[in-house]
Amino acid sequence: MRKARPISGLYAVTPHTSDDAQLFSQVEQALMGGVAILQYRDKHSDLTVMRLRARRLRELCQLHDALFIMNDNPGMAAEVCADGVHLGRDDTPVLQARSLLGPNAIIGVSCYDRMQLARDARNQGADYVAFGSVFPSQVKPRAVKASLDLIRQARDELDLPIVAIGGIDLDNAQQVVHAGADALAVISALFGASDIRASARAFTTVFSSVH
Length: 211
Fold this sequence. Notes:
Blueprint: E1 9-13, H1 20-32, E2 37-40, H2 47-63, E3 67-71, H3 74-79, E4 84-87, H4 94-101, E5 106-112, H5 115-123, E6 128-131, H6 148-157, E7 162-165, H7 173-179, E8 183-186, H8 188-191, H9 196-210
Parallel strand pairs: 1-2, 1-8, 2-3, 3-4, 4-5, 5-6, 6-7, 7-8
Helix pairs in contact: 1-2, 1-9, 7-9
């Protein structure tokens, strides 16, 4: 594990699929298009499948100089030498994950629509915080709404990278970056695109056009 460059740019979250070859092909196309961070999120596979997938995804990220983050599971993150872990409300506490993964791991925390969760995550040593759903989400249609004003507040108050997630596409990405998001976490608008690599490239231009 390595505490690498700051969390910024296009942050891809893997889609649900039972087809390994499809998953790896889609991820490689996204990485070739400029994805900076890949989070492996899998709520359906058994641990053996997850472990095999995680190792292959980590290899792909290394080939393309991207960060590899495991969702939910710091133990597996350590086992497959991921760069870090992303934790939700009901997952392992930050301090426990840090104790397991060490000082060089990247630990991100979902803060939903609550600024206090972000403050708590910062105080516990998280490396980035995530807010969402910023827009209506196909993946989580019942997710709470995190406003752009909340992103702006976090940008003003927190000295941490901010990740925005939920319903982000090429039509609204620029306004999220303008509000202060360092990274855009995307699933459907990236992996549902007819040309994944071109979609990734288009997302990366949003950051250069704003900054």
